[in-house]
Amino acid sequence: MKKKRLLYGILWCLLLPGALWGQNPKREFRAAWIATVSNLDWPSSRNLTVAQQKESLIHILDSLKALNLNAVLFQVRTECDALYRSNLEPWSYYLTGEQGKAPEDPNYDPLSFATEEAHKRGIELHAWLNPYRAAANTAGYAMDESHVTNQHPEWILEFPGIKKKILNPGLPEVETYITSVVRDIVSRYDIDGIHFDDYFYPYPNSSKGFNGISNEDADTYATYGQGFDNIGDWRRENINRLMRSVYQAIKSEKAYVKFGVSPFGIWKNGVPEGIIGMNAYSVIYADALTWLTDEAVDYLTPQLYWVIGGNQDYNKLLPWWSEKAKVANRHLYAGHSLYNVQPQMAPLEDVFLKELTHPAWLTDAQMPGEIFPLQSFDEIPNQIEINRNHRNNNALGSVFFRTGNIMSDPSGMIHHLKNNQYSTVALPPVMPWLGGGLPEVPNNLQYGQLAGSERYALQWDAPGAGEYRYVLYQFTSENPTPEEREIAANILALTGETHSFGANTPPGQTVWYGVSTIDRYGRESALSELLQVATPEAPVLLAPLADEPALAKEFTFEWQAAPGASYYHLQVAEDANFQQLIFENARLEATEASGSPLNLDGNRTYFWRVRAGNIAGLGTYSEVRSFTTGFPAVPVITSPTQKEEFVSLTPEFTWQASEGATTYHLQLSKGGSIFSEDKIIVEVENITELSYVLNTPLDKWYTHYLRISAVNAKGRSAWTVPVQFKTTTDIPEAPTFVSPEHQAIDLPLSLKVEWNTVDFSTGYEFQLASSELFDEQDVLVDEKNLTWNDAFWQVSNLEYHTTYYARVRSKYVGGVAGWSETLRFTTEEKDDIPTGIEDDPTCECTVQIAPNPAREQVKLSFWQAGSGPVRVSLINAMGKTIDLPLDKRLSGGKHELYLETEHLHQGVYWLRFETLQGAIAKRLLVIH
């Protein structure tokens, strides 16, 4: 394990992001799949309104733009359906909850809306289609009557074991049908590309006993398979023929529209050497190399969802694919998975392999034998660097599955990319074989106020008719070199609009701005004339007025718009030098700001100032103005005190006067760990005194929170810090000892100390000590867990002729009450038993005498095993028998005898019980 950790540590150091990696490229394809099947990414529900769908899609595009992605693969055909207006296929179930049902807005077209919004942000949109799948789950929802499975059931191959249907790739009619769908989209929508995923012939599913297609298309092969020696070659050619047909249809409509496919990441098992995995060539009959050779695609995006190293080594697969793309003069954009990325601090030794659902469709079955490992946090950044190391072999970008994982970013890896590999803007790579010339240069670059807006921005004129995107640059020299234009860090924005708000100039720098055009082929024009922008002048303050007294609680900071300003920086402080700032907002777009949310103190003077900013930076500050708040200061609560307990159930709340206050506002909440407005039980306004007494008693032993604010015509103060207090409860009295008597002497060494039970008590605490001070070192017994019924403590192992002290107190819901009066008692002296009256240990009898000590009478209780003579003798301390209370034959069992003691002298006596079985002597103390 130590060796493994050392190896991981070395690899981590070698692959550190940031400074150890090269500069980000200016041209790089950065895209994400937006999956609509099963509502994976968008729309999030089939029940969203059109407005909600639009809002959600805009949020997605804004998030991808913020990550500096420049393309989306937007799924518009999941299973021979349409997320766009189509006369060929029905509306998608995933859009409206019912296949064939149109959105409620007749003017709404999701593909048109998505394309327009993507282009505004400078993002390419590739329409993503699944070419053959007709039903992802035949046990799912009902297909519309217009669906191809109902219109042309003869075109369908069905696989009941996995509950799927696909269009039969071997039918010429199917090829024509799919091509017509693609042509329809390209001709009617302003898209940038068409994208096919990896579903051709069906994947195997070991969990359902499905090993792939077998003889389902045997009849079609018999009809159309002439010239092919085996069915596998015929199946591959069916797909190859579709690729050529689709490519030709796209280019005949719009030559600049790109066509790409994302095949399974392994072409053949063992290719390249050392790779182990499913054979896409002979299992799903996808021959991606032929598509390259036939020039039937513009790019491939193999789904390389594995890690660096192992049997599906990314560092072997990516170079192999890119080499094939280079030979064919086509682009390679690697497909990466995001759903299996671990958090940054996960231990590398915890990385493990497990079978996951095939990434392109979570509703599809697992692929037998294919494993997608959990990735360490730095896996994707490292893979991007591998891609960049093979740029010369046309490895020119990445596509991420899927958008939902980008948005949630549970591992934090997307945030890492934004700050490292994707910290700069990138333009999509140019595909030279598509043609196109250099576009014209944008005109009239200037910095001014946008029409219909108060905001200022960099603006320019489009160079002519047509769809363009624009690249906005920021240079630190007035005459940038061609090399400086190739530095990605000099690009401020890639946009589809003729304006940009740019970014703030770093402090202390002087910059020049320029803009260029990107045409539909991705080619870039020359640079416009450069523009330098001046910082705006200081704003003129309007309100509050200078030195304004008695400012109301509700007020607004106002200032005049400064020419050339796109935002403002407001500061409020307690001092004129602004060393004690209490509020600052550096990105205000309006020329006003409410003072209400600042929670200013009442009856206090503050200072404020404003400066204006734009992309050139911040200008100078305005004059400094002061104002004094006219509403009262926060009062001070004097009773109860913070965390006070045993507060009266009808307390009197008191507070100090707040200067300028005319009334006070009181709120009291009950329960919880903090003041809560939803737990307010008392609220009183317009209190004119400095105290308030509750009329209704509070509940016993509850935590409450009190807060007060002061009010006058200018407004109210902030609330006091809530004072926490606890109401009182029923406190039990101290218990009274019952036995033994106070100052009792000559007590036995083992005895029971008893006391009376007490109302409201939940239990007791008992202490026995050798000193009446109950110092810690003198306490012999300290019992804290006695219940209400345990009103006693059995004391044992006491010392002879020793004085002890006991006390007890009641426990209750709020704590413990006071201690009882101290009980004092003394144990007996150790007396020698007179000779001849010792106990006989063989005696089968028991004897008890009570009370002991005795004054007038003592009761003798005894028991013997069998019948026989019994003699009871009373013996004095000298050993002389002075009385014979009993001398007779008794039956076995229990007997009682009363002995008068009032005539005896005070002192120690012995009672000796003799039977046939033996004898017992009991000590008796007589007191008067």
UniProtKB/TrEMBL annotation:
Asked whether the UniProt record includes Signal among its keywords, one would answer yes
Which top-level group of life is the source organism from?
Bacteria
PANTHER family per UniProt: GLYCOSYL HYDROLASE DIGH (PTHR43405:SF1)
**Xref: InterPro entries:** Divisome_Glycosyl_Hydrolase, FN3_dom, FN3_sf, GH, GHL10, Ig-like_fold, Secre_tail
Q: What is this protein called?
A: Family 10 glycosylhydrolase
- Which lineage is the organism of this entry classified under, starting from the top rank? Bacteria, Pseudomonadati, Bacteroidota, Cytophagia, Cytophagales
Keywords, ordered alphabetically:
Signal
Ranges where the Fibronectin type-III domain occurs: 631-730, 731-830
Q: Which residues cross the membrane?
A: none
Q: Pfam family of this protein, just one?
A: Por_Secre_tail
